[in-house]
Design brief:
Layout: E1 2-9, H1 14-27, E2 31-38, E3 46-54, E4 69-72, H2 80-86, E5 92-96, E6 111-115, H3 117-124, H4 131-142, H5 147-157, H6 162-175, E7 177-179
Parallel strand pairs: 1-4, 4-5, 5-6
Antiparallel strand pairs: 1-3, 2-3, 6-7
Helix pairs in contact: 1-4, 1-5, 3-4, 3-6, 4-6, 5-6
């Protein structure tokens, strides 16, 4: 089973991203389970989306405490110590950031993907909703989902600006920078 945690702010699309990615895995014959956790339902408040994927039906009904992958939509929510406590060994971290890898030295024991998803979304005319760009980067970082399947799910689930969202998926897939884990001494 693969477990993914999405962390962002209300309005960025983190919860919807978990649902779209879940649909993508479903289209490939997997069993997804997507759910969310948030406090005050207001734009800008911290939100967390979760996704489990397995080859067989998922019977778990609990929060994900130690994900295989963490998808960080907003750096202000990215506490490196918390990420290190949570993520499973061998996990991957996707970060929406214009910063270089030198800004994340504590996380170098993990596979890291850096993508300017907010910039991609703004340039595409999507405003602050960059979830589809994050999904394109996730597909490339993990190699777990076929890009065409992801695009099919985006086309099915995104209510407006569908072609622009597909372009954001493709652009992020092409421009993500991936850093393999560094060995620690």
């Amino acid at each position: 089973m693969i477990e993914v945690k999405f962390q962002g702010r209300g309005g960025q699309g983190a919860v919807t991203a978990a649902e779209i990615l879940g649909r993508s895995f479903f289209l490939e014959g997997k069993y997804p389970q997507a759910f969310s956790l948030f406090g005050g339902e207001r734009r800008g408040a911290p939100v967390f989306g979760f996704l489990r994927i397995d080859e067989q039906p998922i019977l778990l009904k609990c929060q994900i405490k130690n994900p295989d992958h963490i998808v960080v939509f907003d750096l202000s929510l990215a506490d490196e110590k918390e990420i290190l406590r949570e993520i499973k060994p061998g996990g991957s971290i996707l970060i929406n950031s214009r910063s270089g890898i030198e800004h994340f030295p504590a996380l170098r024991a993990f596979k890291i993907g850096l993508v300017d998803a907010s910039g991609i979304a703004k340039n595409a005319g999507l405003g602050d909703n960059f979830n589809t760009a994050m999904l394109g980067a996730y597909a490339r970082l993990t190699g777990l989902i076929n890009l065409d399947t992801l695009i099919a799910a985006v086309r099915k689930m995104v209510p407006s600006k569908v072609d622009v969202n597909v372009q954001a998926v493709e652009r992020a897939y092409e421009t993500i920078t991936i850093f393999e884990p560094e060995e620690t001494v």
